Amino acid sequence: MNNEMKMEFDAISVNEGFARMAVAAFVSAMNPTMEELSDIKTAVSEAVTNAIIHGYENMYGYGKHGDVIPAYETLHQGKVYMHCRINKDTFYIDIQDKGKGMADVEKAMEPLFTTKPEYNRSGMGFAFMEAFMDDLEVFSEEGSGTLVKMQKKIGAGSWIEAC
Length: 163
Description:
By secondary structure, the chain is an alpha+beta fold. It has a single domain (about 1-160), classed as 2-Layer Sandwich (Heat Shock Protein 90). About 35% of the residues lie in helices and about 25% in strands.
């Protein structure tokens, strides 16, 4: 099976859940296990949250030290772009922002590294993406944004469990 979808949405926290559900609906045609579906949704959530918080610095909806700020408020205008593809038994997803970008991708990908500790950010976003997906690539340029490319083979667990 081959299939593709593209979408863009405002870089606000309320759309994180929307992105998770849209991806879950799209990948459901592949008949993923609950674990595979959960892995994909978690990775998407982390990538979209990074785009909103770090790419555009839209903190509304995430709160600061427990404060709740409306999830539909925007500090900086911006869009998150999501491109999903199914090619046979592999799911591909690209999540992109055109925000501020990163000077040092390797440093940003280190577990526990965060530029927003005051917002209780754990610095585990990229580590979770890497753990839950089969492949992760991150491209970023300061002033131009960030592109996160991930893929996951669906149905791989059945042959592993048989061994």
